[in-house]
Amino acid sequence: MKLPKKVRNRSMKETILYEKLSGRRVRCNVCAVRCVIAEGQEGICRTRINREGVLYTLIYNRVSAVHADPIEKKPLYHFYPGSKILSLGTLGCNFRCPGCQNWEISHAGSGMLETGTVELTTDQMLDLMKENRCSGICWTYNDPSIWLEYTLEGAKLAKQQGYYAVYITNGFITPEALDMIGPYLDAFRVDLKGFEAISYKKIAGLGRIGKILEAAVRAKTKWGMHVECVTNVTPGINDSPEELHKIAMAIKTELGVDTPWHLTRFYPYLELAHLSPTPLSTLERAVEIGRGEGLWYVYIGNVPGHPWEDTYCHGCQTLLIKRKGYLVLENNLLDGRCPSCHIAIPGRFV
């Protein structure tokens, strides 16, 4: 994919969601960490800096990764299946996942801006969507909440031009930030990395499922976004039946039985390279747990060709969508309904 040449970061941009404190300190109100930042210092995401009592973003329109992907890769299974989406990432993250597959950009600091990113205006973003025949845009690879100023501008433009817009997120966003971008987002694909605080500490370094579920519920109920959840089932950390039961029950109670839950296979990487890949039997047991709790749509990810990649009608169990990896092999839906029992399938479909 052709991108603009790398350029210097021409200017910092004042952030749109912070408050000034005494002693030239500021509090960032974009993510739920709510960093209090002293003058000259950066926040935990390493993308926002306090200069003389003013908080600036260092990553506005700075892009580190761009791809045109099938929507199934996100994964989103009940949101325009078979469509193509433009995926953008930047630098930094508010989490410190020790096994992050995108650690080169998510763990990077502001020192990588000139060598690790290019400048991409939202108009250029729109051109790439058109050139690659994408139906929408998503911000992913690192958490998009830290990119609020750029993603807000991009989501507004996408909506104006008839494209959908999506956050692929860890969900640790404040209500204020979510309410800013909420009117312009169509889907909120959120990670539920565990249920217990100790699981989040081991997998992400921080985070609390209560705050994350609150954001997902707000996205769905206040802003009408389509929501799907993902749990990367990690051996010895969040794979106990007790924890998986709690996650499934939380999804059912807070988001509803019609909320898709993706259970993805962990692969050893980075600081978690000493662990083993998730056994298939563990993933299959997790599916049984989710379905046993009453969830209608529970999927296995990172196991191409497994039957639980496919979508079956929650009413009559007819095969609706057959997949292999990121490919849709069959789509038997008729106007978003099961062709056999005619029940409406939750989601957004062409």
Give the ordered list of helices and strands.
EEEEEEEEEHHEHEHEHEHHEHEHEEEE
Strand order of the largest sheet: 8-9-11-12-13-14-15-16
User: What gyration radius follows from the Cα positions, in whole Å?
Assistant: 20 Å
* Percentage of residues in DSSP E strands: 15-25%
Q: What distance lies between the first and last C-alpha atoms, to the nearest angstrom? A: 27 Å
Structural category is alpha/beta
Please identify, by name, the CATH architecture of the largest domain: Alpha-Beta Barrel
Q: Can you tell me the overall shape? A: globular
Would you state the CATH class of the largest domain? Alpha Beta
Major sheet details:
8 strands, mixed
Kindly report the name of the CATH homologous superfamily of the largest domain. Aldolase class I
Topology:
Layout: E1 13-14, E2 18-20, E3 26-28, E4 36-37, E5 48-51, E6 54-57, E7 62-63, E8 65-70, E9 84-89, H1 103-106, H2 113-116, E10 118-119, H3 122-131, E11 136-139, H4 148-160, E12 164-169, H5 175-181, E13 187-191, H6 197-204, H7 209-221, E14 226-233, H8 241-255, E15 261-265, H9 280-292, E16 298-301, E17 311-312, E18 319-324, E19 327-331
Parallel strand pairs: 9-11, 11-12, 12-13, 13-14, 14-15, 15-16
Antiparallel strand pairs: 1-6, 2-3, 3-4, 5-6, 7-10, 8-9, 17-18, 18-19
Helix pairs in contact: 3-4, 7-8, 8-9
